Amino acid sequence: MASNVNPTVRRRRLGQELRRLRELKGMTAEEVAERLLVSQSKISRLENGRRSISQRDVRDLCGVYEVDDQRIVDSLMEMARDSRQQGWWHTFGDIPYSVYIGLETDAESLRVYEPQLVTGLLQTRAYAEALVQGALPETSTAEIEKRVQVRMRRQERITAEGNPLRLWVVLDEAALRRVVGSKLVMREQLEHLIEMSQLPHVTVQVLPFEVGAHPGLNGQYAILEFTDAADSSVVYLEGVTSDLYLEKAQDVQKYAVMYEHLRAQSLNVEQSRQFIAERAKDYAE
């Protein structure tokens, strides 16, 4: 569940504020880098929230931007201090997608399109174990268990009292027909999917094969939205060795429109439950 201080979100907000100060000063990232004798890539990473920001970095940047209001400087310094704290996921060691977990932990709503598998927040433990084993065949048993534990912990956002994550998932029919683990694992997974879809804040729709070509053929993506107006929406694209985060308004809008088309082409909620239930029967043998 979300903590009072989320280091990922703090870094992101701080980066946005530092970018705003740079733009008010009329300077490019390259010019700032030259003044501070650092690489331009460092300035970019600080501004996009993908790198920890030290209080020294904040002090130096405020000096370059000639920030005279000490209250602003103090506020940015406090955000830098908070951004270096550790989120719950750090107790599991090095997690490849820790930035995403930090965003998901603080998100108000999440829209996901999954073309190949059941989305992580709705996976059973048995399905998750079989999935990680199949996707990462050279991974040790300990690493597989760690990844599964993290996935199970992430699911607490769905059942959190008071402020659960609002989740909307569009699943391609392929995700229901691809046997992960065994028929028993699949039957339990689909039954769990039906159960979770009945929560008031969880919506699951199935995109059937008969739709043909559709806007989601380029692959999986997720759209995260936040309560605080200072936090812009993010599109998350998962990769094998690195992930991509899109935050420009025009990029987010394009993916949001694509998602609306996917929802419109999918079976409605009740039809989707019936469809999933029929597929679950296929694994009852």
Automatic annotation (TrEMBL):
<dbReference type="InterPro" id="IPR043917">
    <property type="entry name" value="DUF5753"/>
</dbReference>
<dbReference type="Pfam" id="PF13560">
    <property type="entry name" value="HTH_31"/>
</dbReference>
<dbReference type="InterPro" id="IPR010982">
    <property type="entry name" value="Lambda_DNA-bd_dom_sf"/>
</dbReference>
<dbReference type="InterPro" id="IPR001387">
    <property type="entry name" value="Cro/C1-type_HTH"/>
</dbReference>
<feature type="domain" description="HTH cro/C1-type">
    <location>
        <begin position="18"/>
        <end position="72"/>
    </location>
</feature>
<protein>
    <submittedName>
        <fullName>Helix-turn-helix domain-containing protein</fullName>
    </submittedName>
</protein>
<dbReference type="Pfam" id="PF19054">
    <property type="entry name" value="DUF5753"/>
</dbReference>
